[in-house]
Structure formats: C-alpha cells, structure tokens
Amino acid sequence: MEMEFVCSSMRRSISKLVKCTILVVLWFSCFSFTSTEAYDPLDPNGNITIKWDIISWTPDGYVAVVTIFNFQQYRHIQAPGWTLGWTWAKKEVIWSMMGGQTTEQGDCSRFKGNIPHCCKKDPTVVDLLPGTPYNQQIANCCKGGVINSWVQDPANAASSFQLSVGAAGTTNKTVRVPKNFTLKAPGPGYTCGPAKIVKPTKFISADKRRVTQAMMTWNVTCTYSQFLSQKTPTCCVSLSSFYNDTIVPCPTCTCGCQNNITQPGSCVEGDSPYLASALSSSSKNSYTPLVQCTNHMCPIRVHWHVKLNYKEYWRVKITITNFNYRMNYTEWNLVVQHPNFDNLTQIFSFNYKSLTPYAAISKLCL
C-alpha cells in the first residue's frame, strides 16, 4: 500500500525529519513499553467500555443487554473479533442468548428439564457472524466481532448481545456483578477493571416520545497496552530520499531474529514449498504472526521516502508492506507523529485526521 502527502516547511529542514519520532500503527502501536500498565500514549483517554444493562426481571434472574463500545481514536477490533469473558459472583447460568454465544456450554448435568445455554462459572462470549437468522439477532450484533473506532466510524463502534441469566438475584439488592472481566480483541493487550454500578441507562423510543430505563446498570472499562499485546515491536520503519541512493533499512532483529535452528518455523521464506502447510497447521496460535524471513523479522514494514524537499514544503511517500502470512489488514490505520503535521497541505490516496492527545505537544496524522 502506498500513499503520499505534502507538508509546508515552516522553516524546518529535512534534516530534522530523521530526528523526529515516527510512530506507526496498523491496528496496533509499533513502540514498546517498559511496564505492563494498560496505557496507550497516543490515545491516553481511549478505552473500551462494556455496559451491562438489566432490562427486565425473570422468576430466577434477569434479562440483560451487554454492549461493547470502542471509545478509542484509531484502534479497531479486527477479525476474528472480540472475545469477552468474566467470572460469575454466585452460581449463575445463562439460559439463552441473542446476538452472541458462549464458546462452551459447560457441565449442565444438574438440570433435568430445560438445559441452559451455558453453565460455566467463567463463560466466554463471542459475537455471531453476519448472516445470522433475524430471530437470533439484536441491534448492533452479528458483525463477527469487528468493531470500528468511535472517532472514525461511530455508527459501527459498538457491538451488543442479549442474555437471560438464571440462578441470580431478582432485585437490585440481590444481584451480584460478575468479576474478573477479560477482553481479547482478538488477541491479548487489554486490561479490564472491576465492574462499577452506575446510574441506570435511559432508552429513548424510536419516535422520541417516551423514555424508559434499565433496572440496573454497571460498566467495565478496558484499556490497551502494546507491551501486554506483544513484548517485541510489531513493525519497523525504513528511510530513503530522492537525493541519496542509500536506503536506511530497518535495524537487524528489530522484531526478533531468525532462529530456525533452535526455533523451527520462526519464519518462512516466500518461495518455500512448506508455506501452505505452515499456514494450515492447527498447532499454531492464529494470533501469532507467521512472518517472511527478513533481517528485521517484523510483520509490517513502513518505508518513508522523501520525494521532494523545497524551502516552502516537502513531500513524502509512505509504502506499507505486510510480511505476516496469517493476517490481511483490510481496515488498517497508519498513525505517524511529526511536529510538522499541523501544516499538512495535501494528501493522496488516503483519508487524514489530526489527533491531538497532548494539545500542542504532538500532532498525529491518521
């Protein structure tokens, strides 16, 4: 993938270009952290909020709608989608679900009549796929777990499912909130806090003439950390310019080193006859990149090429190369931090949005 943009110089020479910090993100950050805190410095206020609304009571529990909101500026949840887990506070079961399903039913042998949808103490829920029958759908469901960011696509920044919970409390005083929420989107990287009871959500009817509200609502906030997602960088940046034939490549072993002797299968040559079998191998974690053998060993390489450098402006072409055989980045994002991006004058072949997480300290191009 290639793109170009032009920035006015503002008395900044191109020599300062190399000194600038270039941070690139394709659904994930390229930088690494020194701590395990779930924090994204490019989106310090971004988070994923899980809202749990009890909408009605049943003889032995309640019916709830759970909605996952992606309040991040640029980070999508890509295919194969989100996976949400928690631990019940008591001996709750899930009688039925719409718009989602648990991955395992668990041991329901104590039930002789109707069999619950899930009896596990720690259920794991996934979204249903597109094309699910209408009688199994609710609003904002059935997208295969894919959620776009709120800033870029608010209409598709939420995902919902409905569940009927049994063996639970039937009043606000007897219901217990679940514990130990986990979110994979689709792999690790998110840390979720405890559920907090908040004011009940209010719902406005389609004709906007009536307002109803949930019986009880609690929120769970999950934040992202690249370090928790992967301890090594996930991409690298190479540099070149029109006035010099030399290309500054990605540093050797940026994202790891070739080690097929002690770690067979750490990378695959592009023309290898074993590539197809490596991709279909069921023993491999599908979230772990299977990369082409290179000096840098990164799943993604971003090449920054200076095409023009005048006193009034400079022009750059960016080329993104995917070396990960296990992932197609169909809805990718590129985030670059540069002090001159507040003077961007022209762009080609991509959409741009300025992000300012720290006001005048940094400008981000998306």
Describe this entry's structure for a reader.
The protein is mostly beta strands and 366 residues long. The protein has 2 domains: 47-228, Immunoglobulin-like (Sandwich), CATH 2.60.40.290; 235-272 and 287-341, no CATH class. It has 3 helices and 22 strands. The chain has helices spanning 15-19, 226-229, 275-280; strands at residues 2-8, 48-58, 61-70, 83-87, 93-98, 100-102, 124-127, 158-166, 179-184, 190-192, 196-198, 202-204, 211-213, 216-224, 235-241, 244-248, 300-309, 313-322, 336-337, 344-348, 354-355, 364-365. The strands form 5 sheets. Strands 2, 3, 5, 8, 10, 11 and 14 form a 7-stranded antiparallel sheet that branches. A 6-stranded mixed sheet has the order 16-15-17-18-1-20, with no helix packed on it. It has a 4-stranded antiparallel sheet with strand order 6-7-4-9, with no helix packed on it. The radius of gyration is 24 Å and the shape is globular. The two termini are 15 Å apart. Residues 234-356 form the COBRA C-terminal domain.
